[in-house]
Amino acid sequence: MVAYALSSKTLSVPMKLFTKNRLRLCDQLAGKVSRKAFILLQAGNDTYRGFTSDAENAFRQESNFHWCFGAIEPDFYGAIHVKTCKSILFVPKHPPDYEIWCGVIHNLEHFKNKYEVDEVHYVCDMLSVLKASADELLLLKGLNTDSNRITEPAYFKGIDSFKQNLDLLYPALSELRVFKTPEEIEVIKYANKISSQAHKAVMQSMRPGLFEYQLESLFQHHTYSKGGARHVCYTCIAASGSNASILHYGHAGEPNSKLIKDGDMCMFDMGAEYYCYCSDISCSFPANGKFTPDQAAIYNAVLKANRAVMDAAKPGVMWTEMHVLAERVLLTDLKAMNLVTGDVDEMLSARVGAVFMPHGLGHFLGVDVHDVHGYPEDGPKRPSEAGLSSLRTARELKAGMVLTVEPGCYFISKLLNDAFLDDNRAKFLNRDKLRDFFGFGGVRIEDNVVITETGCELLTEVPRTVEEIEAEMKKTNLKVEF
Ligand code: GLY
Ligand code: MN
Ligand code: MN
Known about the structure:
3-stranded antiparallel beta sheet, 16 helices
């Protein structure tokens, strides 16, 4: 079996995964294009640090190219004959000096075997190879509804001499990416496994007196050294204390640099990717290993919301309904804690849930952490209400979709102060009691699931109940000294 693995210790991923994706794509497009139409995709390019030469960033393949070919190198092109699904890779022809700086110059046969494609040619021969067989090129151009950026179609010198179709490929490929094959789910499961183990190592090593970035570093070390994950699929959020209420903490201006204190609640949102397949996991726990009654109450409210969504998620259910379900469970518990008051249905209408959970319940996950096609042209539009408008998809659930389930409860001063001044929402908020929670930070519990024919399957394997977390933090078998 031809497969990719970083080493004998990491998951083997068969090239059949990509053969199958190409077949699915050709099936979708056949009948809509001419007999001589070819799909043409361009791999990612190497990027460098500033204007420095010889200082490449660790390369990560462009996601659509990866989905079709699984090739790990930059600067390739890939073509697929829609009618027969014949696959062709075009690889750069390196100068002889390449061998001095970068090692062996592999021949065409090497790549044909490595990626189990039908033909391999040099990029410099692409024009003549395609001219001999293609009368139309299907190129990838479309709006990524998550980033709001438009993908760049493949380009090479001479492409203007072909008839080009920029309309068909993007919606077809993106829609297929929403539905994961069993082979893809295996890789996402593996990414979840290694990230879950790393989260456990973090819990076991955690103690007040460490800096947040030391745990970020431990997570990355664990997923790379044990799991072969060279990349995390987003910048690690290793937040403690009030930083846990900063939804995307850990960015360049807030680089996980706070000293972790006794009594802090931690919220660590960290996920590694393996062979471009992502995981996205958040764990929340007390820095000292023992929940206070308030920490446990907020944590349990979010966990209840997380589990209620997993119990209800199945084909036919709208993702927007799941978001509202999570809000309902959360607000019911906040009411029991006397943090909010009044009728929960009225609170939902007034969008009080978004004061505590301003982000969406979850998103598609795949070769991108916020995976594509949350808002296809023929699907439900983005809702306009607070909180719901942050959802990265509003679609109906179907078997094969992989999503995150990530309810949270945060005490964000700006949102609370704004709501205190808003008559529609202020009446539901117990201002005196909420004042005690300024500085608490927040809790996010983020799991990854696949929708099955009858419900959903959990892919994440971390301790979740208060008891499980406290027990995990007492263990020392994965503990690392700093
Ligand atoms: N880690 C980013 C997110 O949860 O969507
Ligand atoms: Mn997420
Ligand atoms: Mn996350």
